[in-house]
Amino acid sequence: MKVAVEGCCHGELDKIYETIAFLERKEGVKVDLLLCCGDFQAVRNEADMKCMAVPQKYRQMQTFYKYYSGEKAAPVLTIFVGGNHEASNHMQELPYGGWVAPNIYYLGYAGVVRYRGVRIGGLSGIFKSHDYRKGHFECPPYDQQTVRSAYHVRNIEVFKLKQIRQPMDIFLSHDWPRGIYHYGNKSQLLKRKSFLRQEVESNSLGSPAAAELLQHLQPAYWFSAHLHVKFAAYMQHQAQKDLLPKATKFLSLDKCLPHRDFLQIVDIEQDPSASDRLEYDPEWLSILKNTAGLVNTTARTWNMPENNGLFSRWDYSASESGLKEVQSDLGGDLRVPENFSATAPHYDPNNPQLQREPTYAVNPQTTELCACLGLTDPNACRTEGVGWEEEQEDNLSTGSAEEPSEYPTDTSGLSSSVNPDEITIEEEWEEEDGEEAAIQSPPARLVLPSPSRTSSSDGLIENRPPFSLSASLPEPMGVSSSEEFTNEELARHEGAGLTDGIEGNSSPPSGESSAARPPKRISGENAATGQGMKKMKRRNQTIYTARGEEEGEEGDC
């Protein structure tokens, strides 16, 4: 099936769907599924904008509210994870996932679903070590700290995902797995984004938690965003026991702006006998049931169960009996019910309500799922003043806020690089007056390869050089330092179905030829080389406004 992958959405649903429609007409294809890799910005009204971690002047109502209100309908099934610029109050209503609008599905803090036999997992948010071991304690109205910490990844979500034993086809995250840049054209990446050099060379760029999941899950595809650059990588994992080694094709995409590589269409092999409806994943639901007693809705730091002699139980993976129990709970019907319901009023451009304040809502979708499976609704816990289930408290190893991160090499709180393409809301940097980000050049043309070029079954492992991912620093991949890969290098390192796809931008060119051209790793950017890190001041003034970005300024991450 044709899967459209999109980088940072930033609420621009109209532009994204218009771009997909343009590509479908131009190339004569039909997109079956859209995957968005964070910063989705499901903003329903003015109150939701107050729950989004961006400066006041950049809080803009984009186009999601039209799909929430029913004014428009999503033309293709859309699945997304959260990033670091979200209406967090809306996302918190659906901790286990659910519909934010008809045909638009959020995977929750972490989640796994199936579509046409393809298993899709995801992890929302970005990694920050100082919040990693806390519970999801935040609730609206947020203060300056909780509006940011609300989207930080927590160890409970990573722990749940590490209980997965069955193969994963696709995984979504907002920030990159740490070390993935060693498996692609690193020199080209640093040419495009020179401010990342220090973190890349010290191997501190990206999420260590996501790197751990990459090593554990070893999905066929991993899609990310956050850094506003198109980057492809190919990682071949170490063989386990007598099994053939698995390989992961990684792709990160840009944000939705004109002349940017924010959209890629990939061919994914599907099960022709599988349902055309979005389905729950039995193994994931069983894991949710098993870990229901570990729900923490306090700011207290704590460690996940492990086999270290301190816990009576540390394996929460799904058993055969657990899988049967899930099937029984659902009455044998794995289809996700189309039970979207509005929990807040939608924005009315003819009657703005600027004084509207965020409200705390319990979503009926979450209530229904929890009742069906016997799960704990974190929102209900907060309403009732419950921290976590007391019978589990004796089995938890807790820590203090002063304890070091479980990732000893983590420097996420001390990052020295400043992304001029990002609203660095957490550090509140500002570009030097008069200094602008590089203007991006448009891609030469849109290209649709033949199915054999993008099929997920072609060229995955057999002819690839082995690369291993260790628990610490991965070995750098030998790549060309030249400006462009040769065709042979592209074939070896990028993997079919990633760089050979349809590339879209939000202002489609007219009258361009669709003739095939040699594949490329990154297009649509013309960053200067050999340039040091820009001087930065407090609070970024030149980003995150659509009009300014279309004139060459760059936006948030």
Describe the 3D structure.
The chain is an alpha/beta fold and 557 residues long. 21% of the residues lie in helices and 13% in strands. The chain has 17 helices and 18 strands. A hairpin with a 2-residue loop joins strand 6 and strand 7. The longest helix has 15 residues, at 13-27. The radius of gyration is 22 Å and the shape is globular.
Strand content: 5-15%
Radius of gyration: 22 Å
Largest sheet: 7 strands, mixed
Which stretches of 5+ consecutive residues score pLDDT under 50? 385-404, 408-416, 425-497, 506-556
* Distance separating the two termini: 29 Å
Assign an overall shape. Answer: globular
Q: Share of helix among residues?
A: 10-25%
SSE-based structural type: alpha/beta
Structural key phrases:
single chain; 557 residues; alpha/beta; seven-stranded mixed beta sheet; 18 strands
Topology:
Elements: E1 2-6, H1 13-27, E2 33-36, H2 46-49, H3 64-69, E3 78-80, H4 88-92, E4 98-101, E5 104-106, E6 110-115, E7 118-123, H5 146-149, H6 155-161, E8 170-173, H7 186-192, H8 197-201, H9 208-217, E9 221-224, E10 231-236, E11 247-252, E12 263-267, E13 279-280, H10 282-290, E14 302-303, H11 320-329, H12 364-373, H13 378-384, H14 390-393, E15 397-398, E16 429-431, H15 451-454, H16 487-493, E17 502-504, E18 536-538, H17 546-550
Parallel strand pairs: 1-2, 2-3, 3-5, 7-8, 8-9, 9-11
Antiparallel strand pairs: 1-12, 4-5, 6-7, 6-13, 10-11, 12-17, 14-15, 16-18
Helix pairs in contact: 10-11
